[in-house]
Amino acid sequence: MGIVVQKYGGSSVATAEHIQAVAERVKKAREAGSDLVVTVSAMGKQTDRLLRLAGEVSQNPSPREIDQLLSTGELQSVALLAIALHDRGVAATSLTGEQAGMKTEGRYGSGVISEIRPERLRNLLAEGQVAIVAGFQGVNALGDIMTLGRGGTDTTAVALAAALDADRCEIYTDVDGVYTADPRMVPGARRIPVISPSEMAEMAWRGAKVMHPRAVELGALYGVEIHVRSSFSEAPGTVITGGEDLERLETRETVAGIVHDLDVSRITLSGIRTGPGTLSRVFAPLAERGISVDVIVESGLKEGRADVAFTVRRGDFDEARAVAEDIAVSLNGKAEGERELGKVSVVGTGMLNRPGYAARMFDTLGEAGIPIRMVSTSEIQVTCVMRAEEVGEAVRRLHESFELEERDV
Ligand code: ADP
Ligand code: ASP
Ligand code: MG
Asked: In angstroms, rounded to a whole number, what is the distance separating the alpha carbons of residues 221 and 377?
């Protein structure tokens, strides 16, 4: 029998009862004969609680210490799951990221996995044990703990599956699969039984929280078949695969889904002096501070002056705005910011080479009286930035106008 990697998200291990239910599932899977590696997130909202605590102690906590702190959330849940399994007569050992051989590099708070040394895991499996690995963490060349970014346990799971050449990676969460829109926002959203890695990655990058985007890309790179399922039911879920289950991939007439992201703010530099190198002067200082910029629009170019607007995550808003103000002043302009924005994207390979999709999106939003603040497009998505309070209505209207409810996938 091959190896299966299972991942349980925070809401699936939120309480002692939840952990017992997960232990029952793990026991069943073990009894079915698979070698099992399980990775688990922190209990419920524990990561948020720890972040809040750090914020109460300091205005400016060190990223290294934040990672040290956040990693403890996952340690609690893996140890508790191992204990619950022991009670059920299942041999299991919990491991930190480091003990499991997860090596990371990059920045604290958004570490990337550089290597996995799976010897310890293989030894545990050879002994018939279930290996339980703390999610969302690894250790860097200094021996310091790093976390992989919010939602990163999905990436831990897929990386483990790739390193161990597992048969599949099962992501257990609080919804029974990937839907055509967030089912909490659109009651008529439909489960997508099979989705391609490229569509899933795009949905994830655009904000569909159900999967960490890096996990999807890693899965595509290493050919890991990912199953997204509910930890509360036996429903079939969604399979993310590039395999032959996907018929008519390029000729399909529809989009995959409507995705939203409420973690969006916008900064506008207006009337700045412009010429060659201006954009670099604006964006290099942001990059130096590790602030990622998403949608960028340059407009109103007239007599050597222009407006430049861009979006950042809300957590980066204050810093980005301060940086932008300095730059704007040095270029004889001014900077403004809006904190409460959101993005809505229409995603799908079905829109390749079909320009009508963007028009239909604008039409739908126009009819709903929702002003579009910024637009960005690529081959398989169109994204509109709008006021945060309008996002829910926009997603519902678009879901309807793209006929995602009636679709037979
Ligand atoms: P976990 O704690 O298990 O990692 P997350 O909260 O990160 O769970 O992800 C699951 C949530 O993702 C769901 O509760 C749902 O509200 C949200 N979500 C957003 N978009 C989608 C989508 N297209 N399909 C399914 N769930 C989605
Ligand atoms: N506990 C971490 C978070 O809340 C990682 C994860 O859940 O995947 O972001
Ligand atoms: Mg998650």
From this structure: 24
CA distance 212 to 152: 6
Q: Which of 8, 45, 70 to mutate to test the pocket of ligand 2 (most atoms within 8 A of CB)?
A: 70
In angstroms, what is the span from residue 60 Cα to ligand 3's centroid?
26
Backbone angles phi, psi at 339, to 5 degrees: -85, -40
Q: Which CA distances in Å does 370 have to 165, 168, 364? A: 48, 42, 9
Q: Check: CB of residue 303 under 8 Å from CB of residue 371.
A: no
pTM: 0.93
Question: Is residue 208 helix, strand or coil?
Answer: coil
**Alpha helix (H) residue ranges in 289-380:** 317-330, 356-367
More confident residue, 31 or 253: 31
Give how far the C-alpha of residue 237 lies from the chain's centroid of Cα atoms, to the nearest Å: 18
CA atoms within 13 A on the CB side of 37: 34
Per DSSP, the residues of 5-37 read EEEE-GGGGSSHHHHHHHHHHHHHHHHTT-EEE
Read off the pLDDT of residues 218-276 as tens digits, 9 standing for 90 and up: 999 999 999 999 999 999 999 999 865 555 555 555 789 999 999 999 999 999 998 88
Residues 325, 272 contacting (CB under 8 angstroms): no
Structure-block tokens of residue 175: 């919804």
What residues flank ligand 2, with Cβ below 6 Å?
9-10, 41-42, 47, 73, 135-136, 150-153
pLDDT digits (tens, 9 = 90+) for 175-226: 999 999 999 999 999 999 999 999 999 999 999 999 999 999 999 999 999 9
Q: Which of 50, 110, 153 to mutate to test the pocket of ligand 2 (most atoms within 8 A of CB)?
A: 153
Q: Residue 78 corresponds to which tokens in the numbers above?
A: 């893996």
Distance 9 CA to ligand 1 centre (A): 10
- Give the pLDDT confidence score for residue 193 in this predicted structure: 94
Q: What is the pLDDT of residue 354?
A: 75
Q: Which residues pair with 305 in a beta bridge?
A: 273, 302
The ligand 1 atom at the shortest distance from the C-alpha of residue 228 is 25
What end-to-end distance do the CA atoms of the chain give, in Å? 32
What is the dihedral sign for C-alpha 368, 296, 258, 177? negative
- The whole-number average pLDDT for the span 135-145 is 98
